# Entry
Amino acid sequence: MMLKPTADTLRPTRQSLLARLRDFQDQTSWRDFFDCYWRLIYKVARSSGLADAEAQDVVQNTFIYLSRRMPNFRYDPARGAFKSWLRVVARSRISVFRRQQKAEDKFRNETQHEDDEAACEIDEIPDPAGDALDEVWQREWEENLVERALARVRAKVTMQQLLVFRLSTLNNLPLNQVAKKLRLTLPQVYLVRHRVGRLFKAEIQRLRRETE
# Structure
């Protein structure tokens, strides 16, 4: 069973993509950037305690923030990994959102109950930028890495081959059950899992080099 042949196109690194993002009119690059990372930022925002709509606001605020600063931004890998840089940006937007949210609540409380001494002070807002959120970021980053690697592999294999890999490797389904489910022989399942697994590993390594 042969893998579907495709051209091995050269994909831009995160550094070259960031350089192109300095041009706000480069909608293709911005769409690529957004598609790669909006789910990651959304999931981290949700894990910090924000509701669905609030997490979506954080995503929007993050990309607005980036769009305003990218024209003068120069990314230097020597000063830190892209992964860490994006984490700091997302974390700061979550903190800003929560502080604005608390400030609005405080203002409403003071307006309605000027003598209410129980009104929360902004300085008392829990900072979601601690170790707990860093752990969430790491977990979500790894999941995002897997999904993006699978998206790249999908362009090189058939749907059945990708399904074999998902079931046998990612879902840990016994190979004999995969063969029976997809009406393949056991040697076919072994071969596909090995070949697709090799492509998947190469994409994971490529993404790590680009971002970490």
Remarks:
- The mean pLDDT is 80.
- The CA atoms of residues 45 and 51 lie 8 Å apart.
- The domain at 14-130 is CATH 1.10.1740.10 (Rna Polymerase Sigma Factor; Chain: A).
